[in-house]
Write a structure and sequence with these properties.
- Strand 19 and strand 20 form a beta hairpin.
- By secondary structure, the protein is an alpha/beta fold.
- The chain is elongated and about 85 Å long.
- Strands 1, 3, 4, 6, 7, 8, 9, 10, 11, 12 and 13 form an 11-stranded mixed beta sheet that branches.
- Helix 4 packs across helix 10, helix 5 packs antiparallel against helix 8 and helix 8 crosses helix 9.
- 22% of the residues lie in helices and 26% in strands.
- The protein has 3 domains: 86 residues, Immunoglobulin-like, CATH 2.60.40; 265 residues, 3-Layer(aba) Sandwich (Rossmann fold); 96 residues, no CATH class.
């Protein structure tokens, strides 16, 4: 009798299990859902989970074609769908015996937006009066029908790579915008106005994060062979600052997105790497190599921001050296652009209020390297110099039509310093001269025999020199003297 009861119980259990399995709804990753934007004219990936061995069919309303696959023994499945030119809205129906419909899908251009707090800073701003210029009017005039969609990931970290994250797409409505990254929103706004197509923005950021937190072990070791990962063995040591711990954000806030088809990446980070600025150019080169490999997009456009001026709270100044390493990384990375922000910083606020200007400079780079637009997007940079008596003559790029200083007429142009053989720098006078090419003549009565010149090479020294397109002259130095030694104080 007991044997019969056990057999019947087993049959009931099996029947219920099969019933639940066959009727279970498809599980989709957070990044795939209503209101999403898929990259146009690609073989975009869609994926999820079902019961093991299930036949999964995916039908897209833009061409009414169905592609099918079979879930593996863990229930995971993946298909690629051919996307058309920009348009929508469309629907995607996924069927494994029970249908799931993804609604209001747009086809357009998809950009990933990442970094630390200057990328994280929302349109509503941060507390203590840290606001975003232009945010009020942008939010008030927003329309949900405008084809800009955003997916902002929550903060998360993990010691091991994750396959999913809790995130959803939202429309461009006044209700949704205040908590979305201002830099990302203004970037998307500019692209949408210029390209006239739907824009999708996936935003993954964390304030005070280091670049190493957004990388895996192998990519960090490629840049810094002696990198120390011992902190990962003691979670108690990093629980209060996971965003400054190697690999943790990459595992939780990048890896879950890895199958999503992207156009490009904008990146605003660097402030937290000032203490180890010496490694930043190699780290950033290895970082973008990792992300391009992760997203299977070897030529993915990479548009990054050079950090803005700010009076950092430590005695030995290093921010200028970090900016220099950021500029150096540009020469190591193909298909990349750098938005110079030396004119936009604030002395005692690390989060500049002029997020629209930053975003639009990033967008200019994106349009040039990502879409082949023949536009001016590069800031003027130092090329070379020669010494004429007591003057140093500086040659710059991107200044064919001349440079101008935004100061009162006849006023002093700040930011330049010169030094002699003693390596002591003194403030210098600057004159913009046409020869016929534009040059900058620098001199100081304190240095009759100059050998080196610097421009805005400080933690905080706003730039005032621009080319005809309103792009600022990038900070620079002509020397290679190491004067950033000493103890580091960070926060």
């Amino acid at each position: 009798m007991n044997k019969i009861i056990k057999i019947l119980a087993a049959i009931v259990f099996l029947t219920v299990s099969l019933s639940v399995s066959s009727g279970a709804a498809i599980k989709l990753p957070g990044i795939i859902g209503d209101h999403m934007v898929l990259q146009q004219q690609t073989d975009a990936r869609l994926w999820g989970w079902s019961a093991p061995g299930k036949r999964v069919s995916v039908n897209c309303s833009w061409n009414n074609k169905t592609v099918s696959t079979k879930s593996d023994r863990d229930g995971a499945w993946e298909v690629r769908v051919k996307t058309p030119s920009a348009g929508g809205p469309y629907e995607i129906t996924i069927d494994d015996g029970k249908k799931t419909v993804i609604k209001d899908v747009l086809i357009g251009e998809v950009w990933l937006c990442s970094g630390q707090s200057n990328m994280e800073m929302p349109l509503e701003g941060f507390e203590y009066g840290q606001y975003v210029i232009g945010a009020r009017d942008y939010i008030a005039s927003a329309r949900s029908e405008r084809p800009i969609r955003m997916a902002q990931l929550p903060l998360d970290y993990s010691l091991t790579p994750k396959d999913d994250c809790e995130v959803s797409w939202v429309t461009n409505s006044p209700e949704n915008l205040p908590e979305i990254s201002a830099c990302a929103v203004f970037f998307g706004d500019y692209l949408q106005r210029v390209l006239g197509v739907p824009i999708g923005l996936i935003i993954t950021d964390w304030g005070a994060s280091t670049i190493e937190s957004w990388m895996d072990r192998e990519s960090i070791l490629e840049a810094v062979p002696k990198a120390d990962f011992s902190i990962l063995e003691s979670p108690e040591k990093f629980k209060n600052f996971p965003q400054q711990t190697p690999t943790l954000l990459f595992n939780a806030m990048v890896n879950p997105l890895r199958k999503y088809t992207l156009k490009g990446l904008i990146w605003y980070q660097g402030e937290s790497n000032i203490p180890n600025y010496q490694d930043y150019d190699n780290l950033q080169r290895s970082f973008i190599s990792l992300w391009r490999k992760t997203f299977e997009n070897p030529g993915m456009p990479f548009c990054f921001t050079q950090i803005a001026p700010f009076e950092y709270p430590y005695e030995v100044k290093r921010a200028a050296f970090l900016r220099e390493r950021q500029a150096m990384s540009l020469g190591l990375i193909e298909n990349a652009s750098m938005a110079v922000t030396i004119d936009l910083g604030e002395k005692y606020v690390i989060h500049p209020r002029h997020k629209r200007e930053v975003a639009e400079r990033l967008a200019l780079g994106a349009l040039a390297i990502g879409y082949g637009r023949q536009i001016k997007y590069l800031s003027p940079e130092y090329l070379s110099h020669e010494i004429e008596g007591s003057r140093i003559i500086i040659h710059t790029s991107e200044s064919e039509q001349g440079l101008h200083a935004e100061i009162e007429e006849g006023g002093f142009i700040p930011g330049f310093e010169v030094a002699g053989d003693d390596k002591r720098f003194y403030p210098a006078q600057a004159a913009l001269i046409h020869r016929p090419e534009e040059v900058i003549a620098i001199s100081s009565p304190e240095v009759p025999k100059p050998v080196a010149v610097r421009y805005c090479f400080k933690d905080y020294q706003p730039g005032v020199i621009f080319n005809n397109y309103g792009l600022p002259l990038a900070p620079f130095r002509s020397d290679d003297w190491d004067d950033a030694k000493g103890p580091v104080f960070w926060w």
